[in-house]
Protein 1
Amino acid sequence: MTEHSDIPSPLSPVQQAARAFIESEHPLFSSLGLKATRISEGEISFRLTVPAGYSDGEYVHSGIMAIMLDTILGNAVWTSLDRFVPIATINLKTDYFSKVAPDTPLICSGICEGIRDDVAYSTGRAMIEKSGELVAMAAGTFMVGTRSKSKSRL
Amino acid sequence: MIPDLSQNVLEKLERRIAISEMAGWLNLAVTIESGQLIYTLGFDEAHIGNPVIRAIHGGVVSTFLETASWYETYARLPEDVGINVTSVHTNFLRSTTPTDVHASVSIHRLGRRFGFLEATCWQEDRNNPVATAETGIRIKRPDEKSSLAIKT
């Protein structure tokens, strides 16, 4: 399964910031070659490949999926806000399905399911781009608008 | 019953850490204190979640706790047993600082086919944990017969 780009133009300022943070501003995510394939209100999707430097044996370490999904679930929260505020992960549950060889093209997507008071709820998944095979699934909650910037994890 | 740690457990773990690229990226190290394995995530700039606020990425903390749970299982089972993490549920109790993180792991149950573990990590003060994670681990023993009803 191939996911084509679905990115509106122009993006809102907060959507532009969320995209720039993942694609170019962060050294870890830059090393994964992340490219946005979908950005809309509360939904975000990226294409990436995990290089051998994050492997454990012949497959990539499952933890890199938790790192990616934590980031993308948080980004999905940002795209549903009308202004950029600090957010922090409260908890994250990640389930691992399939092992992935290094340099396999993946699609990683997140949806902000809703925000109640100042807690946002997101879900997401990582899939092999070509086959659509599920690699990992995640659900997380995020505190929106932490008390100070220094307390934010993202 | 949870298998005891063997006398040469540190050598076993260090051999495994040495051949894992991800363990290298995490700067993973392990020691024994009072009979308990203590894991360390050696801080590196690559672990930062946001360069502006300089907290360690939550996903990196989760990966560290998951990895500590994997090694705790590996430490107690024969080397020919397969160990696959199926799920990790991490609670982020407080923000981190750009310094080393340490973890210990409690084993709730290591059954014949599945293990349930809980890892806790801290930075300067062990009494102020920064995160906890419950991890589920599938254990595949060499004599396990595969189920015909389940695609593996």
Note: Chain B touches chain A through 34 residues (CB under 8 Å).
Protein 2
Amino acid sequence: MSALLKIRRASPMLTVQDRGRRGLLHAGVSGSGPMDPPAFALANALVGNGPEAAGLEFAGFGGTFEVTAPVRIAVTGGEAQLSRDGTALAPWESHDLAPGQVLSVGALKDAVWGYIAVSGGIETPPVLGARATHLRTGLGGHEGRALREGDELPLGETAVGPCLRLRSPLPRATGPIRVVPGPQDDFFDEAAWAAFAGGAFTVSATRDRMATALEGQEIRAAKGHDIVSDGTPLGSVQVPGSGRPIVLMAERQTTGGYPKIATVASADLPRLAQTPSGAALSFTKVSREEAEDAALAARRALALAIDTLAPKGSLQLSSEYLLSVNLIDGVVGPEAAEP
Amino acid sequence: MTPRILAAGDQALTVELSSEVDEVVNARVIALARSLADDPLPGVEETVPTYRSLLVLYDPGTVRGAALGAALLERLGALDVRAGAARLWHVPVEYGGETALDLEEMARMKEMSPDELIALHGSAEYRVHMIGFAPGFTYLGGLPERLHTPRRATPRQFVAASSIGIGGKQASVNSVAGPSGWRFLGRTPLVPFDPAREEPFLFRAGDRIRFHPVTSAEAARLDAALARGESPVTPEVAA
């Protein structure tokens, strides 16, 4: 009998996610997976899981949880208010949770999407090669749906290990969201580009795992707002006839018939996902090469954050290691005393 | 039109062969996807064939978009479009009944009897131009012009899986239940998408489809056979 994670109370948007379905876009199957992949990957790493393990994603607040075997848990995504039997715990680090204790994951103060990882990972049956939930088609996760009070999820074997914490927060860019023009950038004239790349937008309350709608100056496509449907990569900024851009996110459909003025740089997509509704944002054009460089830098930063996770209470981080990854440049003070 | 490489962010690009729907273009798109599956280029992770373009997902840690774009154009130039056999499916359709939401109204619009409309729909050979929108949803080309019909002004909230549809110039075999503004003539007992099946997707881009009317009794017999796990309909493989 495997260990269980018991859902005592659930956020209305609490789903099982793993890093997503791969290789089936040609069959119309959305990748799904986390809205903020680096935060999700860190949650897994903090509890000693591999990157393929499944965890929970929530929006707003998490819920309350119990387990039937001792585990480690971690909550990431933002400054979540969480507690174990009423005692506050810190996000972005792992904590022990024993049977009989109640984990409560409250509101995210500064973000939209939060992650709860449990050591061993959630082991609902994989569907089409992944555990990620795709809500619109009812695929994967737990019965293809958002979780509810009373649900019980099987957990994998928990390896014994220490509770971990981050050495330093994951660096996240500030400033305008970077976009690469295309694929249908030539549908839009200079005035439309000025409205898009120069304009001020706010994130609409109309948002979900599929798309983030934006409000601001209307963008007109000089060549019209209909194309013969083509593929829709992650981060596509499609502009329907309303003139209001919509950024396609994790649970997007695989093809679409609106012109796509630009694609959000993958390094900035988690930041866009985590921008609260009503908050202001703007876009700036970058070249594909610049966006590729940013993607690779973000990948290195995440790998470094994972590789340098430290047991809680320990103060030492190997200087040799940091030198070996050639990324310290005074960013991390390895000998600094930390709480 | 000369093929173009369109940027689609830092991990995808689009090989665009045309801006229009065209049988020959679509065959080239599918042949390019097949070529990349059989003989992968380094860094290519996934492809999405559509009517007129191929979306190519790549890992910028292995290949940069600029270099990949050049390699894809080169591959396209050397492509053997006739490589690979096209499958032909004979798809049984129960026209009429509960799932034929628009049969009567379309017959009135087209000033023909429902039987004439069914015969016309069943007279054509269709081609799966792409699978998109939802798991296993088939976009078909080849709909006779008289059956071209604009979508409904107000989409329906629920259309059953396996419905046989018409949307503008396109035809469909729907795969999952959901909202739709298309017109529907009936349903097939075949199940285009079943995640629990060994081969979850029945159709793939490039397949050919012919529709054959069956009675509701025959449809019920096929439903039962499929429920037992049998495969009463298999495709012909033609050169």
Note: Confidence is low (pLDDT under 50) at residues 318-339 of chain A.
Protein 3
Amino acid sequence: MKDKIFRGLLYGACVLVLLLCAAMVYSLVSGSWQAFGQFGFFRFLFSAEWDPTAGKEEYGAWAFVTGTLYTSFLALVLCIPFSLPVALFTGEYFRKTRIASVISSIVDLLAGIPSIVYGLWGFYTLCPLMKSWGLSDQGFGVLTSSIVLAIMIIPYASSLSAEFISMVPNELKEGAYSLGATRLEVIRTVVFPVAGSGIFAGYVLALGRALGETMAVTMLIGNTIQIPRSLGDTGNTMASVIANQFGEASGLKLSSLIAIGLLLFIITAVINFLGKLIMKRQRGK
Amino acid sequence: MTIMENMQDTTQGSPKHCILEFKDVSISYTEGKWAVKSVNAAIKERSITAIMGPSGCGKSTLLRSVNRMHELYPEIKTTGQILLDGKDVLQMNAMEVRRKAGMVFQRPNPFPTMSIYENVLAGYKLNGIKVSKAQKDEIVQKSLQDVGLWDEVKDSLMKRGSFLSGGQQQRLCIARAVALRPRILLMDEPTSALDPIATRKIEDMLLELKKEFTILIVTHNMSQAARISDDSMFMYLGELVEFSDTQTIFTNPRDKRTEEYLSGQFG
């Protein structure tokens, strides 16, 4: 009897979570209905127009979509030269040693810093630097946001990569060593190819994090509604425009913001799904 | 010294050249605890020498010291000399040693991301040895023929090795070691993960390989040692208890511990 009640509770909790998720999707879809109805899905997605003037309101997501994709992919590229060495260090070179666990906990600490703190650091430290180096006119912009985003996603990319690197069977590495390979050659010809898709999945999931990051980016990107033309350019992202404008939005504008939210949800869901899929296949091997 | 004298006794009938010599070799993983204790032995060229003994007796460590694979454990300490063709491997560059001493492991470990063809040539690739396409084809064919795998895989050389059976994978791994034409082949219980039929095939193949290569094989399987080896070592608690030709060790062992082990009283 007790067992039955417990099982019932478990089922109930799971169903509730599923319902919550469904309700979220439902409210996003129903909230964005007006905007998609007015402009059509593709026109809304590919238009960079954002004009809230009453009477000739015109909204499109393209400037934000490009801003989000630019900053996230740039962040991903910038984080590789840091996260990959950390992953190799903790997952292969110093595997299961004290120094590796110290380093990986410090890197994991990066993941625990609230994003507003990253934003503040970027605003007061990185922006002036970017300005004085002449990389950006006002210090804000795509590159500034990407650098901060890159630091924020290092722990995600490196801990997942390290996990897959450390999972490469010892016997394969020994096989390569026994043929006269150096450590670097073992990494190049055995560790990377075998752990490859897992490492890739780690980066895909890190990208998913970067896409949705709001606070730090909002503080650093400049929040101008335009498609960024250069790295020093200011821009806006999907998450930032929602954070900045939802307070005073109503009617069609609110619906457009929710529509952007739905698009962001779809993009991150697809990215995360792909990452998990690759990872599952790699773990299954 | 007694063991060296023994060696001379057993080699009187066959004036074969000794290719590998252990001189007072001791190995410890942790300070003060010896996994291998002052081993002296000389291995004859183009012969099969079996190393037997219960788990933890140091036989794998001794085998791995020949190509210095035991150094993958960071704290290891090795004393004595291991002479391969008269040169101390402990003084040589480890990568060079490993090209000269091929190794085969307990479980087949072909590289899963490489084709059969690439697997055979992996040693060349890893050592940056440049060979022409024609030479590559020749090396692959010769090595696969050496291990009796050529006819079974010649039509699927560019496929990955994962569809092969365990026995075939292990023969591929032996081909990979043989491809570099090493001076000695070190085998660490190469058939322990295989079924009896695959084991038999590999044993027959080793008897063929012996014509060209010197083989040092660690085995748990005493009947395997009896079937294929010319000489046998019995190790116990890090010590080389007995080393002589296989027939003598099985029929007339000198040491009581050897006799007890071989008659199945422990181990």
Note: The two ends of chain B are 27 Å apart (CA to CA).
Protein 4
Amino acid sequence: MIRVVLPAHLRTLAKVNGDVLLDVANPVTVRTILNALEASYPMLEGTIRDHGTQKRRPFLRFFVCSEDWSLESPDALLPEAIASGTEPFYVIGAIAGG
Amino acid sequence: MSKVRVLVGTKKGAFVLTSDAKREKWDVSGPHFAGWEIYHVKGSPVDPNRIYASQTSGWFGQLIQRSNDGGQTWEPVGNKFVYDGVPGTHQWYDGTPHPWEFKRVWHLEPSLTDIDTVYAGIEDAALFRSSDGGQNWEELPGLRGHGSGSKWQPGAGGMGLHTILLDPKDAARMYIAISAAGAFRTSDSGKTWQAINQGLKSEYIPDPNAEVGHCVHRIAMHPSRPNVLFMQKHWDVMRTDNAGDSWHEISGNLPTDFGFVIDVHAHEPETIYVVPIKSDSEHFPPEGKLRVYRSRTGGNEWEPLTKGLPQSDCYVNVLRDAMAVDSLDSCGIYFGTTGGQVYASADAGDTWNPIVRDLPAVLSVEVQTLK
């Protein structure tokens, strides 16, 4: 199972506590994780990536094994540690707003 | 026994304030959607338990929430606002073409006759409609398709469609207003639109007959007289008696004619309310005195209403969607401030009391009168 850590506001919106666990078929990428996440939690559609362009929202970042994955291709293969669930996939809200 | 429910949108959540008809003791529920900006919350005239809320965030974008139990519980519905066709461009602040981009929903206007039909006014300015209780949204493209669309320019707060008035006597007619494009009217359910800005004068527009470009802050209408509209423009309080074909100024003896809100007494179509704000560079009341001004003559002659409102050291603002009236026999007037106060008057403005004092900055206030 893939583990996804969401920002607090999105956990509230999705009515989940703690990590979200998802079945994601190979290949495990940012796109396939988000597709699975939105399929399980439709209320999250549009909150992480834009409805039309599917681009990451500007004030959100993706972190993978302590690395900022935000600017990588959404179709790049994620490390095995994510695919195996050893490490979570982080969606993090930027610290912004003063 | 009648009740009143006040729906408050703030910078950090929604609040539901309820009272009996005396409007003396209030129950405060919230924050709902804590931490999110709630631009607008409004109930359906068909079934007051159906309420729609616009929930937005710079981080997570736009959500629409719907309640079927008077705001006790909520469910997120559709949040996909996609412009019809190729969006094209409007004017940016510097006059250059700028692509139309969805940012947020400023205003939700439930249908007068159908519980599942609701209109949304969005930034960048466009009008959307849902016919299934907010699940799916489609643009009414005739508005942006009005020939002037490419000339529209944002106001300082963005290019929001903030006012939607539905004509209770003619289901095909509605009015909308956009900062800073102006006011528009449709007579065919939104297929085609006419700019209704003749008579508006804006110092920053050299052409006195400019079709668009006016910074309309708010328009109000009494349901019994849908041809008569009252407008708080950036500067100037205006009135039309012919459904917007022409406007004339009714600022009269106001201490300043800048402001955001304007509303009409529920039972007296010639009694109107504004909250004068010092200027566009100083968004607070003149002299630090928070005063509602009432005209019982449809404008020009105004009286300050001050009992219960702070008359010194008050430097809040009252934003465009933050005033509403109830329809009890003794008409109640409500407004919210950027300082987090929601004031209520149960006697048409003669006296005021704060329902709450310390909410986040108030973005919108709506009232439901419940039987």
Note: The beta strands of chain A are 2-5, 20-22, 60-64, 67-68, 89-93.
